[in-house]
Task: structure prediction
Amino acid sequence: MDELERLIADYKEAWRSGAGDPRPFLERAAPGDRALLAALIDVFLEEAPRRERREHDPAAAAVTEELQRSLSGSSGLWPSLLPRLRGRARLRRAEVVSQLAARLGAQAQQEKVGLYYHQMEQGLLPERGVSDTVLEALGRIVGYTAEGLRKAGQLPAPGPPRADEGAVFARATYGEPAEPPDAETAPEPFDEVDRLFRGGP
Result:
């Protein structure tokens, strides 16, 4: 059992005994692991029965929409972790996308990079398809390790594919729900950006 697993186990035990404040556990975690531990705690609280949440910690009822995406999507804990890391780095999503496109040498396809990053935060992009190159670049931007991002994308075990997974987002407005693909529009050819986000490590 590594330190992160020990901390989440200790938190669960404390929560069940009536002490639901996660701050002491976050303080015990290594600085680089705190965002992931917070996401794991949130997922635990979301999965806990509602009655038990009310009995043990009334504040636990305020669970964000991002946790549902983590539990029902294909991107593990990315929907919970990535916004936290952005917030810690004080970066807007558009700023992350701009820097990510630059680090990937894809400035001319920044919109496409943005759509893939949007899918990561929405739980629509399977972790297994995202290359180490993307995770290393993203990690440098938000101050996290590529290994940590990979692990977060694998936890919890990915659920069944969502109905909108794999949709073509060429006509979507960045940051808004995507429109369904036009039946008469030919799919774009698979290019280097696609390979980086969907071709695997």
